[in-house]
């Protein structure tokens, strides 16, 4: 039988530094808890397996959303409800705002955090594709070191990340997009509320200063691979062109061809491929018409 080397305890420190000290002391013997909406379900009938708890709920600086040096900084303990209600998130990152509004129910959005969604690393985590589409970077801290990691490098498999036991995710950094950035968020599930996504798409397009030429694009999907993914091939087909020169059907086909989803209870591989193509076309149409209203 596994012998515990340290006594079981519950910690709820007020400072990040204290939390990091506790983590370095307890290592794998302690579980970090944020809102608990994933964790308590995973450990529902085996809570006895968890040695000690490190609860982040009292660390105020992890609950802030602020703009600093041309970046949005979001604390890991920011809840989905905060993302949903923040005027700054709505203004600069509407795709993230909409994806947070689509999570679970009001109760889950009040408790569940962005940090928990990221570290849990479910392929169906709703915030992951939007974060990748906005080029998010994650700050990982331990007593010894600080690392800033891109979303792409952070996720390595279903529920697997590069986070080490002594590290905390403390902040999420998003570069502030230009005014000419447009986005679309599409979540497909079997019901409208309280549903785990069958497939998600976050499309973010930045226009050049003329507001006609596409300067950059990120096409990110969730629930179609072991981690959230970007379809980078879309970039070369769109950058430098006007929307009127794009073949939406061809772009949808590229998305369909580049993903290799699995069959599961929420949908078959073929269904997901088909839907991926269609939602890409829908997202392009949405951004095109939003842009036309702004006369580009
Ligand atoms: C009924 C229900 C509906 C749901 N619907 C959705 C949905 O529609 N979309 C969706 O994406 N998710 C959904 N979820 C899943 C869940 O609510 C989210 O993933 C939520 O964001 C998890 O955050 P949390 O704070 O509760 O994480 P927790 O459960 O506290 O933690 C999750 C994991 O992250 C680790 N962790 C948390 N914070 C940190 C940190 N700062 N540093 C290091 N490790 C950390 C924990 O140790 C744990 O392993 C649903 C859950 C339920 C119960």
Explain what you see.
With 296 residues, the protein is of the alpha+beta class. It is 34% helix and 24% strand. The protein has helices at residues 16-26, 39-42, 80-85, 87-92, 94-101, 106-111, 114-120, 128-133, 151-154, 233-238, 248-258, 269-293; strands spanning 10-11, 30-33, 52-55, 65-68, 71-75, 137-141, 146-150, 155-157, 160-161, 168-175, 181-188, 199-207, 214-222, 229-230. Strands 4-5-10-6-7 form a five-stranded antiparallel sheet. A four-stranded antiparallel sheet has the order 11-12-13-14, with helices on both faces. The protein has a three-stranded parallel sheet with strand order 1-3-2, with helices on one face. Strand 6 (137-141) and strand 7 (146-150) form a beta hairpin. Helix 11 runs antiparallel to helix 12. The longest helix is centred in the last third of the chain and has 25 residues, at 269-293. The chain is globular and about 65 Å long. The relative contact order is 0.11.
Mean pLDDT: 92
Q: Could you list the spans in which at least 5 consecutive residues all have pLDDT below 50? A: none
Bound molecules: flavin-adenine dinucleotide
Q: Give the SSE order as H and E letters.
A: EHEHEEEHHHHHHEEHEEEEEEEHHH
Q: What's the story with the biggest beta sheet?
A: 5 strands, antiparallel
Which class do the helix and strand fractions yield? alpha+beta
Radius of gyration, whole Å: 20 Å
User: How many distinct beta strands?
Assistant: 14
* First-to-last CA distance: 67 Å
